[in-house]
Amino acid sequence: MKIKLLYFVLTALFLFTGCVSSQREENSYTETPYRTSLEETSTNTHLKSAENSSKSTATQDKITTATPTPVSETPPPKKEKFYAWVTYWDTLGVMEEALLLGESLDSISFFAAYFNENDELFVPDEINELLEEFNDNLLDSSASRYITIVNDKVNSNGSSSLKDIDLLYNLLASDDAVTRHVDEIIDIAIDGGYEGIEIDYERIRDDIELWDYFLDFVSLLYDRAQQEGFELRIVLEPLTPFEQIEFPEGPEYVMMCYNLYGGHSGPGPKADEDFLRQLAQKMAGLPGDKTFAFATGGFDWTGSNKAVSITESTALSLIENYSAETTRYEASMCAVFSYKDADRKKHEVWYADSITLQYWIDVIKEYNNYSFAIWRLGGNESLDRIADDK
């Protein structure tokens, strides 16, 4: 009888221990909830002053979101598909992020080919090396490769001219010049083994004469790209005068949904709801496929309103190092915090993470089932969490 009683006690103790262990394992998936805040004032408008931004910051109330459901109980949602840029000046970690994104990464834009002092287009060695690395490591990926062309110029003495308008006139203002330029682009796409071409010529703005040259160039390039089997994308800035020009059918048009706040202003988000809705309305009249591009990371402003670009990884390091408290703003869902550095200078940081990006995507989805792009891979901690829960 004593042996049977001992066996019963040991069996019950074993079952109880197993249940406790199982419960701890399940609870280990529960994440710490984010602290958020709701904005009581109206949403920011495009290029709002730093003074108005600082006034709205003072009117925030904080709320705490519910703890996410444990992963063990809820299957992972379907991942959002988008394309992303990789840059020649920052290649650290981009391969790891691309592998982590997997099938979510629809295509990759290699940024960028630019021009020498003789207005000759070339691809920097870093891009060629990065392309080779992607080709070696993403053998099973269906993500297509695009080469991005920008109107930046770098001289042999080390000086440079970014977003050069004179360069565009030299390339596009005559039939012979534009034909040579198109041939040059096609040759680079063929030599690199790319599937697509992306044109990112900026600061044309209200120069309607240059727009006329540019749109003729787009039509010619699209015809040649089709003949050679390449896709074509055209990247547009928020200040594009849509009401004054007519874009040709054929290419995919990409809107840069960022730079609402930055080095030109005081603290604020790269995009907010009002800004995104304005851009969605502007893009509605364009023909063909349309894509909306969002920027990761953010800016760190000092008291002098000097802005330094930072990645999400850098922002999280600052939060940890300075024990900063993070809030969110309803109009943008950006994460915001402040801290004082070693010199006692006050900093204000606004940055985007997966929660921010998903919010921006959801705003644009109200207008149509558009495509999305991410500027850029590198320094992201949560990009792989963007998911389509619709």
Q: Would you mind describing this structure in some detail?
A:
This protein is of the alpha/beta class and about 400 residues long. The chain is about 35% helix and about 25% strand. Strands 4-5-7-9-10-11-12-18 form an eight-stranded parallel barrel, surrounded by seven helices. Strands 14-13-17-16-15 form a five-stranded antiparallel sheet. The longest helix is centred in the N-terminal third of the chain and has 26 residues, at about 1-25. It is globular and about 60 Å long. It starts with a helix and ends with a strand.
Distance between the termini: 61 Å
> H/E order of the elements?
HEHEEEHEEHEEHHEHEEHEEEHEEEHEE
- Which bin fits the share of residues in helices? 25-40%
Structural class: alpha/beta
Low-confidence stretches: 1-75
Reported for the largest beta sheet, the result is: 8 strands, parallel, barrel
Radius of gyration of CA atoms, rounded to a whole number: 25 Å
Shape: globular
The strands making up the biggest β-sheet line up spatially as 4-5-7-9-10-11-12-18
Approximately how much beta-strand content do the residues carry? 25-35%
Q: Give the rounded overall mean pLDDT.
A: 83
Strand segment count: 19
Q: Please tally the helical runs, counting DSSP H or I stretches of 4 or more residues.
A: 10
